[in-house]
């Protein structure tokens, strides 16, 4: 049986302000968790934030959910992720 990961102990609770963070399942709710974890990242915190995500999810999962989310992820965050994974730069919003 897989160990249950308490997302609220991995990521700040305020990222999940509109839901019960204790009910989030790291596997089932990755489409919520991945974008929210990157929503609040900054150039100063990106390296720490992305490593935290990478401890839970694969590069492929992170890219997929970042590209398909409806969360308002900044183009700057998309650029940082693309650079880290050496993929073509993609944007959530038109330039």
Explain the overall architecture:
The protein has 95 residues and is mainly alpha-helical. Helix content is 46%, strand content 0%. The chain contains 5 helices and no strands. It has helices at 7-10, 30-39, 46-54, 59-68, 75-85. Helix 2 (30-39) packs across helix 4 and helix 4 packs antiparallel against helix 5. It is globular, with a radius of gyration of 13 Å.
Give a short synopsis of this structure:
This protein is mostly helical and 95 residues long.
Query: Which regions contain 5 or more consecutive residues with pLDDT less than 50?
Result: none
Helix content: 40-55%
The number of helical runs is 5
Number of strands: 0
Residue-averaged pLDDT: 90
Order of helices and strands: HHHHH
Rounded to the nearest angstrom, the radius of gyration is 13 Å
- Report the structural category: mainly alpha
Strand content: under 5%
- Note the main sheet: none
N-end to C-end Cα span: 46 Å
Rough outline: globular
List keywords for this structure.
5 helices; mainly alpha; 95 residues; 46% helix
Secondary structure layout plus pairing:
Layout: H1 7-10, H2 30-39, H3 46-54, H4 59-68, H5 75-85
Helix pairs in contact: 2-4, 4-5
